[in-house]
Amino acid sequence: MNIRGIFVLMSGFLCVACGGGGGGGGGSAQPPPPPPPTVTLDDRVRSMIAAQGLTGDPTAGRDLPSIDEPLAQLGKLLFFSKSLSGGFDTACASCHHPALGGGDGLALPVGTGAVDPDVLGPGRMRPDGLPNVGRHSQSIFNVALYDDGMFWDLRVESLGKEDGQNGTNSGIRTPDSLPDNPDLSLPANTNLVAAQARFPVTVPEEMLGNFLQGADGDAVRQRLAERIGDYGAGAGEIPNNNWLPEFQTAFASSLPADQLITFDNIALALGEYQRSLIFVDNPWKAYVEGDNNAIGAQAKEGALLFFGDTEPGVSCGQCHGGDFFTDESMTVTGFPQLGPGKGDGANGDHDFGREQQTADVNDRFAFRTPTMLNLAATAPYSHSGAYSLIDAIGHYFIPDVTFDANFSGGSVCSVAQFADHPDCDTLYPGLVANSESAFDRVIELRNSDPAKTFPDLAFSPPSDAPLLLEFVDALTDPCTLDRACLAPWIPDPSEDPDGNQLNAVDGDGNPL
Hints:
single chain; Cytochrome Bc1 Complex, Chain D, domain 2; two-stranded antiparallel sheet; 16 helices; globular
């Protein structure tokens, strides 16, 4: 279906006609009423903030670890260790590096089999020049603030979704449990981030590679724990293994490796490291907390557009509301589908999103709404990493025009990751058809179940997009753009416990 022209921009103006009634009668003339008080831009924004119930601080009331705590320090070393990948060629940080916004700076992750495992961001590639992971790497910044679940399709999901708990107060469903059932293999009070840490190591494209082909997830995790602990079937796989003292320090324990270095403890440490990556001290927070000079006039106008002024209405804030700037819902947004996909569709090159987890066709193309915090550091955007920020904004107004401008004729040459590939014009032949099927689903939901998709937004892209950009730029914590500020979360080469630490470089060989 050709979607051109079906999406309609709403750009209305509210005109209020006020009339004054004349009155007869005698008597002396009354003095004119005083002029109404001047309503400033700050007055309007602060009225909106009050109406939205914003405090500026999404961490309030949460128990969050510091990077200086022993468990987070152990988690940092594990997060940067290629020893947790089947072929010793990939670390968690390969796709989620703090210096790359907590992601990898690419549209789609390269995963295992990179030509140079230590190169991250632009320049990281496999021998065929293509990524082998079908979804964009989401940032690990502020993952401790999610309460509903993890991953684009929420495949690690809190069953209770209690506010402020990061999944600890009720069971957590994972790919190892049935839908709507808790994973009973998880330790008590496991949080969502620690639960999530159990799965990338089991995926061939992400970290496992060709190691232990055919083994189930539990067998893979057990073998990796034995490798790190230098016991059982993994004994001797790491010649220069100094992990035991690191675990004993972190857990304040003298237990031997086979009791202390379990995958439950590995996941716990990985989770605490990631949960320490809290970056919320942005200009918008300072403004909400009282500093009128923290953001400029354009950002303030952008905030009014973003949240729909003081009245509930058609706005970005409907999905990206609150102090964390996400409702964590599963929403059909119709972003383009490029890359290898996730095995869905007739050719296996499509990604049906949430439907993969629920087997419910009504969930097709639904993906988790990400936070808007730190957008300046976390490009590119969408589940397929298809767009820059300006194009992502344009998608919500004129998706067909935005798509055509970027992928004319089905070419992915406009995407930096593929621009130098000799076959970029023909790399993903299903791009147009797959993307249009996602667009069509948005149209269908507009008519049948509008709560599942984004609404027509009452903006004008040419004039309003710069204001929105100014506002979302104010949502970025400056620390996320400052390598020196990020240093506590990136291990020094001298901290390497086994010679397999990822000391990452960019495509030109410069340390990240």
